[in-house]
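Here is one chain, start to finish.
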Amino acid sequence: MFSIWKKYKRLFVNSWQATLAFRANFFVQLIMRGLGFLIIIFLWKAVYAQSGDIGGFTFKELLTYFLIVEIFRHFMSHETFRDIQEDVRDGRIANWLVLPLNSMYVYFANNLARNIVALFFYIVPVALIILFTDYFVGPANGWYFLMTVGMGIIGLFSSMFLYTLFGSMAFWTVETGSIIWAVNFIVMFFAGKMIPVQFFPDLLRAVIENSPLVVIFNLPASLYLGKFTYQEAVWQFVIQIGWMIMIYIILAWVWRRGVKKLELVGG
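Its structure:
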C-alpha cells in the first residue's frame, strides 16, 4: 500500500501546488457561490413565509442543508470528466500510458488534490457561519456528525469513480462537451443539489434514495440534520459502500478496454 502511495505522491503534490498557484480563480468561484447562496436564502425565505415546515425541513434546517451541500460540492469530480476528454482529444493521455503507472489512478490523484485544497479553503468560513450566525443549525449530535464525515468520504470516492467512468466515454467518442453538461445537470439534480431528495414524489424518492447519486449531496446533509434513524443510516452505509465497489469494478473494466482501444489505434 505504501509503495502505491509513493508512486502517486508526486502527482498528488504537483496537482496540489498547481491548484494553490491559481487560488485567485478559486476565491472568485467562492465569492460567486456565496452570492448564489444569498439568492437561495431570499428565495426560500419567501417560500417559508407561507409555511413553517416543508417536507420535514424547517427554514433553518433547509438553509443548513444547502450550506452542507456546498461543502460537499467540492467533492464532486466533474473536472475529471473534462480532464480525460481533453487529454484523449489532445493526445496528452499518452504521457501517462507510457509510464509504469495506472493511468486511471493518475486522474484519481489529481482529483483528490484539487478537492482537498478546495475543501480546506471552504470549511473554515462555513464553520464560522454556522457558529456565529442564527440562520443555521449544528449537527443532530456527535454520532450524526461522524456519520456525515464518513458518508462524505464515500461520496468523494463514489463521485470520483462515477465521473471517471463517464469521462472514459472519451475513449470512444473523443468529444464529450455536451455530454458533460447533461450528465452534470442530471447528477446534481438527483443527488439533491437543487432541492432535497425528501421533496421528490414518493416513488421517485424511493428509487433515488437507493441510487449511488444520493451519497454525493443528500445523504451527508441529511445525516448532519439527523433525518435518518440509526438503523436507516447503517443501511444507507451498506447500500452506498456496495454501490461504490460496484462502480469501481465497472470503471476498471471499461478503463482497460478504453486504454486497449487507444493502444490498438496507435495512442
